[in-house]
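Lecture 7 notes: from sequence to structure.
We start with the chain below.
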Amino acid sequence: MNIMITGATSGIGKALACQYSASGHKVIACGRNLDKLDALQSENDNIHPLCFDLTEFDTYPELNDDNQLDLLILNAGDCEYVDNPLHFDAKMFERVININLISIGYALEKWLRHIKPGGRLVVVSSSAGLLPLPRAEAYGASKAALTYLTQTLAATLKQNHVNVTVVLPGFVDTPLTERNTFSMPMIVTVEEATKQIITGIENGKSEISFPKVFIFIMKCLRLLPSGLWQRLATRMK
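Predicted structure tokens for the same chain:
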């Protein structure tokens, strides 16, 4: 397969790139850290690096007709928290929305038409978009919008014979979550997350969510009356 992965220099993206490369697939690995991309290429066969900034539309590489994709995985993202909503940091909000949501729109404009008929678009969102969580005004909003966007594409791209999958992970042990200073229940390893994603893609799932118990609890909490959930969320903070 011909696979393109964004956010391929660390965490889930890097693990996916390495696993697919080891399985003999051609992987176009995207990131903005040239040193990490070079190291990834030197350690893995079948890796073809592309270095650019996902938040800068004019830097996006064009794909020619020979680079048709079997699988496009849009995985890059970041997380920052709102510590004091009365002193709302608009610039931080803009940064998170740009990398987690707007950059997805850039990638779709540039690359969606290069997915082969019968190919698949995979968007890595987050279970954080399922509930309004404390301090996650920026991150949660970006991921809730991203999930909605992906689920809409799943319906509208059927006529174009493009399959769509949204990934809703719980906590995964990556460099991103290492910055968290709070308890992360049911956290899984990046290896387990990668296994879940690859297996779900192979099985043609439209939604890949894990760990199952954590996601079940999140979806149950979503059914609570908003007032009750707000009281619970206040205690969590």
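Points to note: The chain has one domain: 2-236. The CA atoms of residues 224 and 230 lie 10 Å apart.
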